[in-house]
Amino acid sequence: MKQRTLTILKPDTVARRNCGAVISRLEQEGFEILAGRMLRLSEEQAMAFYAVHKDKPFYRPLVEFMTSGPVWPMALERDNAIEHLRKVMGATDPAKAAPGTIRQQFATSIERNAIHGSDSPENARIELSFFFSAAELA
Ligand code: ATP
Ligand code: MG
To answer: Were both Cys, which of 12, 20, 66, 77 would link to 46 (CB 3.0–4.6 Å)?
Structure first.
Protein backbone atom coordinates (compact mmCIF):
# COMPACT_ATOMS: atom_id res chain seq x y z
CA MET A 1 0.00 0.00 0.00
CA LYS A 2 1.29 3.46 -0.86
CA GLN A 3 2.49 5.38 2.13
CA ARG A 4 4.14 8.75 2.72
CA THR A 5 7.11 9.62 4.86
CA LEU A 6 9.30 12.61 5.59
CA THR A 7 13.00 12.68 4.94
CA ILE A 8 15.45 15.47 5.68
CA LEU A 9 18.83 15.74 4.02
CA LYS A 10 20.76 17.02 7.05
CA PRO A 11 23.28 19.92 7.03
CA ASP A 12 26.25 17.56 6.59
CA THR A 13 24.74 16.16 3.38
CA VAL A 14 24.20 19.66 1.95
CA ALA A 15 27.67 20.88 3.04
CA ARG A 16 29.42 17.79 1.64
CA ARG A 17 27.51 18.10 -1.66
CA ASN A 18 25.96 14.67 -1.29
CA CYS A 19 22.36 15.78 -1.98
CA GLY A 20 22.40 14.59 -5.58
CA ALA A 21 23.76 11.16 -4.68
CA VAL A 22 21.29 10.68 -1.82
CA ILE A 23 18.30 11.84 -3.89
CA SER A 24 19.40 9.58 -6.74
CA ARG A 25 19.53 6.64 -4.33
CA LEU A 26 16.05 7.45 -3.00
CA GLU A 27 14.66 7.59 -6.56
CA GLN A 28 16.34 4.28 -7.40
CA GLU A 29 14.64 2.81 -4.33
CA GLY A 30 11.29 3.68 -5.87
CA PHE A 31 10.43 6.73 -3.80
CA GLU A 32 8.47 9.44 -5.56
CA ILE A 33 9.36 12.94 -4.40
CA LEU A 34 6.04 14.72 -3.77
CA ALA A 35 7.44 17.94 -2.33
CA GLY A 36 10.75 19.37 -1.20
CA ARG A 37 12.34 22.68 -0.32
CA MET A 38 15.77 23.62 0.96
CA LEU A 39 15.59 25.83 4.05
CA ARG A 40 17.43 26.84 7.20
CA LEU A 41 15.80 25.63 10.41
CA SER A 42 15.38 28.18 13.18
CA GLU A 43 16.46 27.12 16.65
CA GLU A 44 12.79 26.98 17.68
CA GLN A 45 11.93 24.74 14.72
CA ALA A 46 14.83 22.36 15.37
CA MET A 47 13.94 22.17 19.07
CA ALA A 48 10.30 21.45 18.24
CA PHE A 49 11.16 18.89 15.57
CA TYR A 50 13.36 16.88 17.95
CA ALA A 51 11.32 17.65 21.11
CA VAL A 52 11.01 13.90 21.78
CA HIS A 53 14.75 13.97 22.59
CA LYS A 54 14.64 17.08 24.81
CA ASP A 55 15.89 15.24 27.90
CA LYS A 56 18.72 13.41 26.11
CA PRO A 57 22.34 14.55 26.55
CA PHE A 58 22.70 14.95 22.78
CA TYR A 59 19.67 17.28 22.40
CA ARG A 60 21.53 20.61 22.55
CA PRO A 61 24.33 19.58 20.14
CA LEU A 62 21.72 18.01 17.86
CA VAL A 63 19.79 21.31 17.68
CA GLU A 64 23.05 23.15 17.00
CA PHE A 65 23.96 20.73 14.23
CA MET A 66 20.52 20.86 12.60
CA THR A 67 20.63 24.70 12.55
CA SER A 68 24.26 24.89 11.38
CA GLY A 69 23.36 25.11 7.69
CA PRO A 70 20.60 24.45 5.17
CA VAL A 71 18.58 21.25 5.28
CA TRP A 72 16.42 19.73 2.55
CA PRO A 73 13.16 18.21 3.78
CA MET A 74 11.22 16.11 1.24
CA ALA A 75 7.88 14.31 1.24
CA LEU A 76 8.36 10.81 -0.19
CA GLU A 77 5.84 8.24 -1.38
CA ARG A 78 6.26 4.50 -1.97
CA ASP A 79 4.87 1.14 -0.91
CA ASN A 80 5.79 0.64 2.75
CA ALA A 81 7.63 3.98 2.64
CA ILE A 82 8.32 4.45 6.34
CA GLU A 83 9.91 1.07 6.97
CA HIS A 84 11.71 1.01 3.62
CA LEU A 85 13.27 4.45 4.15
CA ARG A 86 14.51 3.43 7.60
CA LYS A 87 16.09 0.33 6.04
CA VAL A 88 17.78 2.28 3.24
CA MET A 89 19.03 4.90 5.75
CA GLY A 90 20.68 2.34 8.01
CA ALA A 91 21.37 2.50 11.73
CA THR A 92 21.63 5.87 13.53
CA ASP A 93 25.34 5.24 14.17
CA PRO A 94 27.10 4.89 10.80
CA ALA A 95 29.63 2.55 12.40
CA LYS A 96 26.71 0.13 12.90
CA ALA A 97 24.91 0.86 9.62
CA ALA A 98 24.69 -2.05 7.19
CA PRO A 99 26.82 -1.97 4.03
CA GLY A 100 25.12 -0.13 1.18
CA THR A 101 22.94 2.00 3.43
CA ILE A 102 22.91 5.79 3.02
CA ARG A 103 24.35 6.35 6.49
CA GLN A 104 27.10 3.78 5.97
CA GLN A 105 27.99 5.56 2.75
CA PHE A 106 27.56 9.24 3.66
CA ALA A 107 27.37 9.76 7.45
CA THR A 108 30.47 10.77 9.39
CA SER A 109 29.28 10.28 13.01
CA ILE A 110 26.26 9.26 15.08
CA GLU A 111 25.23 12.94 15.09
CA ARG A 112 26.24 13.96 11.58
CA ASN A 113 24.37 11.07 10.06
CA ALA A 114 23.29 12.50 6.71
CA ILE A 115 19.54 11.85 6.69
CA HIS A 116 16.37 11.75 8.77
CA GLY A 117 13.39 9.46 8.25
CA SER A 118 10.08 9.34 10.10
CA ASP A 119 9.85 6.31 12.40
CA SER A 120 6.08 5.64 12.50
CA PRO A 121 2.89 6.49 10.57
CA GLU A 122 1.81 8.89 13.31
CA ASN A 123 5.17 10.69 13.30
CA ALA A 124 5.22 10.74 9.49
CA ARG A 125 1.90 12.64 9.49
CA ILE A 126 3.12 15.08 12.14
CA GLU A 127 6.49 15.62 10.45
CA LEU A 128 5.06 16.02 6.92
CA SER A 129 2.71 18.73 8.18
CA PHE A 130 5.64 20.35 10.03
CA PHE A 131 7.16 21.25 6.65
CA PHE A 132 4.45 21.03 3.99
CA SER A 133 0.93 22.36 3.55
CA ALA A 134 -1.96 20.13 2.48
CA ALA A 135 -1.88 21.86 -0.92
CA GLU A 136 1.81 21.03 -1.40
CA LEU A 137 1.09 17.37 -0.63
CA ALA A 138 -2.07 17.12 -2.78
P1 ATP B 1 16.43 10.61 12.87
O2 ATP B 1 15.33 10.83 13.90
O3 ATP B 1 17.26 11.84 12.61
O4 ATP B 1 15.89 9.97 11.62
P5 ATP B 1 17.14 8.17 14.21
O6 ATP B 1 15.67 7.95 14.30
O7 ATP B 1 17.97 7.10 13.56
O8 ATP B 1 17.46 9.53 13.46
P9 ATP B 1 17.06 9.14 16.92
O10 ATP B 1 17.28 8.24 18.09
O11 ATP B 1 15.68 9.59 16.61
O12 ATP B 1 17.75 8.45 15.64
O13 ATP B 1 18.01 10.40 17.14
C14 ATP B 1 17.78 11.60 16.40
C15 ATP B 1 19.10 12.16 15.94
O16 ATP B 1 19.84 12.56 17.09
C17 ATP B 1 20.03 11.16 15.25
O18 ATP B 1 19.77 11.01 13.90
C19 ATP B 1 21.38 11.80 15.49
O20 ATP B 1 21.61 12.87 14.57
C21 ATP B 1 21.23 12.33 16.90
N22 ATP B 1 21.66 11.36 17.89
C23 ATP B 1 21.02 10.25 18.31
N24 ATP B 1 21.70 9.58 19.24
C25 ATP B 1 22.83 10.30 19.44
C26 ATP B 1 23.96 10.16 20.29
N27 ATP B 1 24.08 9.14 21.15
N28 ATP B 1 24.94 11.12 20.22
C29 ATP B 1 24.83 12.16 19.36
N30 ATP B 1 23.78 12.36 18.55
C31 ATP B 1 22.80 11.45 18.57
MG1 MG C 1 14.33 9.41 15.03
So the answer is: 66
Question: Which domain, by its residues, includes 55?
Answer: 2-131
What pLDDT does residue 88 have? 98
Atom of ligand 1 nearest to the CA of 117: 4
- Which one of 106, 116, 118, 124 is the catalytic residue? 116
Q: pTM of the entire structure? A: 0.97
Do the domain assignments include residue 27? yes
pLDDT at 27: 98
- The closest residue, in CA terms, to atom 5 on ligand 1 is 92
Under DSSP, is residue 36 helix (H, G, I), strand (E, B) or coil? strand
Confidence of residue 91 (pLDDT cuts 50, 70, 90): very high
> How many domains does the chain contain in total?
1
Q: What is the CATH number of the domain that holds 85?
A: 3.30.70.141
- Rounded (10°) angle between helices 121-131 and 81-89: 80
Structure confidence by residue, pLDDT tens digits, 17-37? 999 999 999 999 999 999 999
Which of 41, 47, 89, 92 gets mutated to test ligand 1 (max ligand atoms within 8 A of its CB)?
A: 92
- 136 within domain boundaries: no
User: Is 105 part of any domain?
Assistant: yes
Say whether 53 is catalytic.
Answer: no
8 Å CB contact between 108 and 7: no
